[in-house]
Amino acid sequence: MQAENSQTDSSPLIPASQSLPEITFRALILGVFLTILLAAANAYLGLKVGQTVSASIPAAIISMSVLRFFRDSNVLENTMVQTMASVGESLIAGIAYVLPALIILHAWQNFYYWQTVFIALLGGILGVLFTIPLRRALLLDTSLHYPEGIAISNILKASVNKDAKDLTTLVKGGFVGAMISLFQNGFQILTDTFNAWRETPTLVFGFSLGLSPALLAAGYIVGVNVAISFTIGIVIGWVGGIPTLSWLYGTTDMGTANEAAMAIYRSHIRYIGVGTMLIGSLWTLITLAKPISQSIVNSFVALRERKKIGATANIRTEYDLPINFIVWGAILMLVPIFLLISGYIVPRHIGLSLPFRTILCGFSALYVLIGGFLFCSISAYFAGLIGSSNTPVSGLLVSALLIVCLSLLAFFNLLPGIQNKELIGVVLGIGTCVILAVGVAISNDTMQDLKVGYIVGTTPWKQQVMLIIGVVVSSFVVPPILELLYNAYGIGGVFPHPGMSKTQMLAAPQAGLMATVAEGVYTHHLPWLMIEAGAVVAIICIIIDEKLKKYSMRLPVLAVGLGIYLPMSTSTPVVIGGLLSYLIDFSLRKQNVISANKQRGLLLACGIVAGASIMGVVLAIPFALKQSADALKIMPAHYADLAGGLSIIVTVMLCSWIYHTVVRPMR
User: Which helix (H) or strand (E) holds 193?
Assistant: First the structure.
């Protein structure tokens, strides 16, 4: 597969022997500006639709455009700006996916400034620290393709090499991706989802076809193995799961067939995905235990060597922040995390004795540290498996929330006389997970940035410093942005002022899910049968994967879980892209052509991802100003059905264009 071939050359763009300015004053100023800008641009989308737009590629493009006016700028300086700026988007995602649940449950009356600052600050710094020991192990894992990291690094490399053919390929892909995204999400002449669900008195069946150019290109980059795993997940969760569950539980009072399918997804299917990913995560951690522990040991060895023979003897491109700083920094952060949870998250008016409050909050702080490292490891792994934009952060957080809520419930069962168990458990569970959520989101983005730095040739410790600076900057600007949006629109059915419009309310769907899950643990309303079914699916996939290893084949259990958990419209374009990459690779092998064709395909896919991502950020501006995702819509309502057919035609044309562009002989 071309994704694998693209990574065979491990030599960085800027060799370790060459030293260039990286953290400069202008890089810091530009990084701060872009961090704030991209965080603000994503806050509305994160609360409105429960999804943010990856800021890494737009940040890289903007940085290149600005710094090109300075003659002495360089690609490493560009990478530092991109690294810092991307933090704003990931931090706002971590906050927006969980923290509004406290408002939805009326535990908080608004986004308290200093509490929110410290939640973001502590979670974000932990996310960066946790990822540093993982860097060597995950970057050397050949099964991880880092689709967005590869896209960003190719954009940066093309700007340095100034190869006319490479730049032309990137620009063509970027233009096509941007235009399709504009017509899909802006003008809505096209659509990124084609639904074909049908309903009978006893069954709901059909499919959703995703037509997003960015996801299709990401599928092309990650290749056919992930596509096959996604397909298995789609078959289990959607092709077989929706009809079976509709037959078992009925289809009455669910509206249209599309609405019925999504209702079954929300109430049953995604919990199967959660069960699969929970067991898959544990298994992945077991398989990664050896390389991660070896990476940590090597970090301590390198630290001792530096002390003996001096820092100059170390390879620049392998120089992380000292491992003792990471370990002690993480341990010492237990104190402020404990103070935050006990003093500002657990309601003071609840009648808890000081010893029991200390035990509960101490356990929660330890869970943030230990559980945080485990879930951050999986989140970082996802960045390599499928890319940051497609990582199911909310799915990981549901798993983390389930574990902490069940653990707290066990505490309460030991002391049956405790009052307000449900309120304490829900608030403490969500308050604990919001700190962890920021770390999970940051670690995912950090791993992608470190992959970019690995390819380009940055000094890792300098990237890590820029990431921490980005966390600090974002932490102080995110609370007023969230408070402004809450006061303007209301969140999750809660309005700060009477008479506010329900149509403009920010739904905060991920936070609503967290509130539902936390309450469900204590009211016993969670679909445990679905979670258990997902666990069984994971065990079967693990057994099959172990057998396939003998034949140099893989069935990643987390990718199968993703195929079940994600909406079908999100999974199918990844499958299409992966199958297209296999078809192209097969044609190239048959023709016995040179590898430059594969590089051209990779650049084209990177351009499509970049163009669609940039257009997503651009469109967020009019959406926020007009308070509607229909701000640029020009397709009349009575012609809306045409959008699906037109989009299928455009997707077929896009696949055909990619195929013929890549397989044609090089000139």
Answer: strand 193-199
Residue 595 has pLDDT above 80, yes or no: no
CB atoms within 10 A of CB 366: 14
As a whole-number percent, the residues of the chain with pLDDT over 90 amount to: 27
Concatenating the DSSP letter of every residue in 564-619 gives HHS-HHHHHHHHHHHHHHHHHHHHHHHHT--THHHHHHHHHHHHHHHHHHHHHHHH
- Return the closest-CA partner of residue 95 out of 119, 125, 131, 64: 119
Compute the radius of gyration of the chain from its Cα atoms: 24
Instruction: Determine the pLDDT at residue 1.
Output: 34
Nearest to 514 by CA among 607, 352, 628, 397: 397
pTM for the structure as a whole: 0.79
Q: 181, 159, 84: which is closest to 609 by C-alpha?
A: 181
Which of 135, 143, 236, 224 shows the shortest CA–CA distance to 536?
Answer: 236
Residue 197 main-chain phi, psi, to 5 deg: -100, 145
Residue 495 carries which DSSP code?
-
Q: How far are the Cα atoms of 53, 313, 386 from residue 562, in angstroms, in the given order? A: 19, 43, 10
The sign of the dihedral angle between the CA atoms of 353, 359, 360, 361 is positive
Among 656, 645, 652, smallest CA distance to 193 is for 645
C-alpha atoms less than 13 angstroms from C-alpha of 199 in its C-beta half-sphere: 17
pLDDT at 577: 92
Bridge partner list, 199? 204
606: closest CA among 24, 10, 111, 61?
61
